[in-house]
Amino acid sequence: MQTAADPFTDLLLNFYEQTAELYDDWADGVNRRAAARIVELAAVQPDEGVIDVGCGTGLVTHALAVDHSSGGWALGVDISQAMLAVAERRRVAGSGISFVHGSAECLVLRDDAVDIVILGNVLAQTQDPEVVIQEAWRVLRPGGRVVVSAEQRSLMTAADEVFFAELAELAAVFRIPRRRDNHAVIGEPSVLRGLLEEAAFSNVRTTQLLIGNHTDDARGFIELMRLTGPWPHAVISVLGPAARERFERRLTGAVKFSRDGGFLYHRAFSFAVAERA
Ligand SMILES: C[S@@+](CC[C@H](N)C(=O)[O-])C[C@H]1O[C@@H](n2cnc3c(N)ncnc32)[C@H](O)[C@@H]1O
Which of 49, 73, 111, 247 would staple 96 via disulfide (CB 3.0–4.6 Å)? Predict the structure, then answer.
């Protein structure tokens, strides 16, 4: 088993060890759709050099239009060996795409090495998002661009909100590490913009993507939401059958009287593209 110094990162590594194979198709493929939007916004040219930080299964990396014969290349970096194993399995030899194990806080590249840095839904999972953005700046050449995505939590449905409120109550008796509260707001467009501008990025443009669906009942909803991230996954995994049934009953009761009246979920993403002066 892979381990890290920080307790949340340990939880994260364990989460991806158990779920890497499910990542691409989870929740009707929301991760694929968010990745496709990043690829579109990055608008990579065949001769450009790209680093995809927190590349996961390579949904974005594999779809970049780099052309090895024109001098283009892409490097996917991730802290999870399980996610990298999926990415590596799909790699086409001679494509100019490679993957390496490493952390977003300390990238393996020299200064001014790339045209584009991609940070796809990774910032909120890192210990220090500001440091990660500074690293992006360091490895970018002047005039290079950064493309960032992050989940926008303020667009949750009533069922999402009830789920997280109930889960927080259930989690109170356990000691399960969690990132600081301020990580949860990283996907708000103004916060994302502020983070980039504070790091001296210019010409910041933001867009959003909202994807939604529903499950038939509380059991299906909990199963789906279990894969939203390391923390929900860890809390739900430690619940015994009685606690789990109680959770289902409470969720069913609360959702019935909520504004949506059903098990609707939202996955909302903010995207930002910015330039390094
Ligand atoms: C939600 S997934 C996103 C994967 C991919 N970027 C995408 O858009 O589909 C987050 C990924 O970031 C990785 N990650 C989290 N913290 C990291 C860190 N400090 N350094 C490098 N990778 C990290 C995780 O292992 C995981 O593969």
Answer: 73
Higher pLDDT, 1 or 161: 161
Q: Is 79 in the pocket of ligand 1 (CB under 6 A)?
A: yes
Q: Is residue 159 part of a domain?
A: no
Q: What is the CATH number of the domain that holds 12?
A: 3.40.50.150
Domain annotation covers residue 160: no
What pLDDT shows up at residue 53?
98
User: Does residue 54's CB lie within 6 angstroms of at least one atom of ligand 1?
Assistant: yes
pTM as predicted: 0.95
CA 260 to centroid of ligand 1, rounded, Å: 32
Contact 151, 124 (CB under 8 A): yes
At residue 173 the predicted structure's pLDDT band, cuts being 50, 70 and 90, is confident
Half-sphere exposure of 265 (CA within 13 A, CB side): 22
136 lines ligand 1 (CB under 6 A): no
Q: Is residue 255 in some structural domain?
A: no
pLDDT > 90? residue 5? no
Torsion of CA 190, 121, 177, 248, to 10 degrees: 100
| Domain containing residue 55 | 7-153+178-211+265-276
Tens of pLDDT, residue by residue over 233-270, are 999 999 999 999 999 999 999 888 888 889 999 999 99
In the DSSP assignment, the letter for residue 21 is G
> In this structure, are residues 87 and 61 in contact, taking their beta carbons and an 8 Å threshold?
yes
Structural domain count of the chain: 1
